[in-house]
Design goal:
The complex is a heterodimer of chains A (about 375) and B (about 200).
Chain A (H helix, E strand, L loop, with lengths): L8 H14 L11 H13 L7 H12 L6 H5 L16 E2 L19 H7 L5 E6 L50 E7 L5 E7 L2 E6 L3 E6 L5 E6 L15 E3 L2 E5 L4 E6 L5 E6 L9 E3 L2 E6 L3 E6 L5 E6 L10 E3 L2 E5 L5 E5 L5 E4 L6 E7 L2 E6 L1
Parallel strand pairs in A: 1-7
Antiparallel strand pairs in A: 2-3, 4-5, 5-6, 6-7, 8-9, 9-10, 10-11, 12-13, 13-14, 14-15, 16-17, 17-18, 18-19, 20-21
Chain B lengths: L14 H9 L3 H23 L2 H17 L9 H20 L7 H5 L4 E2 L2 E2 L2 H12 L3 H11 L4 H8 L3 H21 L2 H6 L5
Antiparallel strand pairs in B: 1-2
Classes of the chains: A alpha+beta (about 375), B mainly alpha (about 200).
């Protein structure tokens, strides 16, 4: 019914032109003849709709909202698992108050693929979609049946513990994903803007632009803990670095130049290191170390357990904000001349470098090859 | 690299997301749908029915039916589905009211304006409005829905037709209108019932 294969270009032009005229926008008539253009404009000119009675219609709407209809009876029997989209989330605990401990999870409960989360949910609202094969129940959607059982849960997935899935930045998951029949399972909306989210061991971690770090149960959407790490988080720079998870910790970089390690289960701060004076780029966890771009000058390697700085690599041609790729014991990274470098992760020494190239930078690594993206 | 601009507001839920929330028992989500689509539905009803009171009633009736039939909605296009309900309600009203109610020219003439600097002749406005009431039902509905902001694809859903058929109806209606305007034949075309 919605196929436009048989539509002639002139008919599509008429649709576009009319939309522009009716919306009062600058119009592009294309190949439409002048008489047609005048007719459309005249239609717009005579279209004077008196406003409806706002008060009356609001009263009618509110009355309608209070009318129960038969199909609601089914949904009244179960408690929806979705918190109010615009409702307030539990208050963020300020440091050093110890957050609520993470409840122990059954080992049999399958994990939800964070790849699915990242692919389907934007930065502001966390959400999970659930695929259910076959027809949906007409009156009670899947997500109001209560907390999903393991059998009902979406694909079992590996962790998606940092940006683009892992240190190789492939953005690939072997999970089948939810298919096309999607239902919102839950959403979580803190009082700040959350950019990237990651997932590890069934917990979703999100970092907000006001410095809130949130741990959300991937199955239910319930907040497990939240901590306020830095009130000055990156507000002026308008960035929110994604967290990275590894070694039972979540690593975030803050607007005041710190890298902070937070315990995944308890939300307690394990260590923090004041590396720079301004915002830091998204940290990367790889093999017991945390790597982070500092002050747009250098890359620093930190011990994930202690936060101690192990080595530092200065961009030869000036820093380029980016997500470096890690594989085969090396870090692959570009500088502002778009030369590509391989850095030995053990020593921080340059292994090899290319000549400056035409506006490319490292984007992913896989199957023995690095892939460069054009800027 | 990931420098992102903050959105000024949180993104709105889509129609289908709101429907799912309604089905989950959050009736306030239907209130959001009501607020979102009332202006378009009302405008469409006004264009067909010709007066404010009937248009308000029809638009609200459409929401009432949608509310009661929400489980039957298949996630295709909620706005198109709403308009299909409203269109049927309007057609029922028109069939009951004909031939008394055609168009309330007073409201159309209340605020004469200009299009791109061209003064619109009041008589012409009235003639065109009258002319539209004589268009075939499908063309009239299509024109009114287009003016309410619906795409061909949404009108196709609302009227149960193919998108190509909708585009053809709209093209014919515009052509008919253009011919009337160009040739000063409004009265003549209106007089023959607009049948092609």
């Amino acid at each position: 019914m919605t196929s436009d294969r048989s539509l002639e270009p002139i008919q599509r032009q008429l649709e576009t032109f009319s939309d522009q005229v009716f919306q009062g926008a600058p119009s592009s008539p294309g190949d439409l003849d002048p008489a047609t253009q005048r007719a459309v404009r005249r239609l717009h000119g005579i279209d004077r709709i008196p406003p409806f009675d706002q008060t009356r219609m609001t009263q009618r709407k509110e009355h309608l909202m209070n009318v129960s209809v038969p199909w609601q009876l089914a949904t009244d029997l179960v408690q929806p698992v979705i918190p109010a989209i615009n409702g307030s989330s539990p208050p963020i605990a300020s440091m050093p108050a110890r957050p609520t401990p993470l409840r122990r999870r059954s080992g049999t409960i399958p994990l939800i693929s964070a790849a699915v989360l990242l692919a389907l949910i934007g930065g502001l609202i966390f959400g999970i979609v659930q695929y259910r094969g076959g027809e949906r129940e007409p009156t009670v959607p899947a997500f109001v049946q209560g907390t999903p059982t393991p059998e009902e849960s979406p694909a079992i997935g590996a962790d998606w513990s940092q940006y683009r899935g892992g240190m190789e930045r492939t953005g690939y998951s072997s999970d089948p994903g939810p298919g096309s029949n999607l239902n919102l399972l839950w959403s979580f909306a803190p009082d700040e803007w959350v950019n990237g989210i990651v997932e590890a061991d069934g917990v979703v971690f999100g970092f907000g632009d006001k410095g809130g770090l949130y741990a959300i149960d991937a199955l239910t959407g319930n907040q497990i803990w939240a901590v306020d790490l830095d009130e000055t988080q990156a507000e002026e720079a308008e960035i929110v670095p994604e967290p990275a998870a590894g070694d039972g910790m979540v690593f975030v970089s803050t607007g005041s130049g710190k890298v902070v390690a937070v315990d995944q289960q308890s939300g307690a701060v394990r260590w923090q290191n004041q590396l720079g004076n301004s915002w830091l780029w998204t940290p990367t966890y790889a093999d017991g170390r945390v790597y982070v771009l500092v002050d747009e000058v250098r890359m620093a390697a930190l011990d994930a357990e202690t936060g101690d700085e192990l080595w530092s690599w200065i961009f030869p041609g000036g820093a380029l904000t980016q997500y470096p790729t890690f594989a085969e014991g090396k870090m692959f990274i570009s500088d502002s001349t778009f030369a590509e470098y391989a850095i030995d992760l053990a020593t921080g020494e340059t292994v090899w470098a290319t000549e400056p190239m035409e506006a490319v930078r490292t984007s992913a690594y896989g199957d023995g090859a690095g892939y460069l993206g054009r800027v | 690299m990931r420098i992102l601009r903050k959105p000024t507001t949180q993104p709105e839920l889509t129609d289908d997301q709101l429907v799912e929330r309604c089905r989950a028992g959050h009736s306030e989500a239907f209130g959001t749908l009501y607020d979102r689509h009332l202006p378009g539905l009302y405008a469409y009803a006004f264009r067909l029915l010709g007066n404010q009171s009937d248009a308000e009633d029809a638009a609200h009736d459409a929401f009432t039916r949608a509310w009661s039939k929400l489980p039957q909605y298949q996630a295709v296009n909620f706005r198109g589905w709403l308009f299909s309900i409203l269109h049927n309600l309007c057609m029922d009203r028109l069939r009951r009211q004909r031939p008394e109610v055609v168009f309330d020219e007073r409201s159309q003439l209340a605020e004469p304006g200009s299009v791109e600097g061209e003064a619109i002749d009041l008589v012409t406005i009235g003639q065109i409005a009258e002319l539209l009431t004589h268009f075939p039902e499908a063309q009239r509905a299509t024109v009114a829905m287009r003016m309410s902001g619906l795409k061909y694809s949404e009108i196709a859903i609302a009227l149960g037709k193919s998108e190509a058929a909708v585009a053809q109806d709209y093209s014919r209606a515009i052509k008919r209108l253009a011919e009337a305007m160009e040739g000063d034949r409004v009265a003549a075309i209106a007089g023959n019932g607009g049948r092609s």
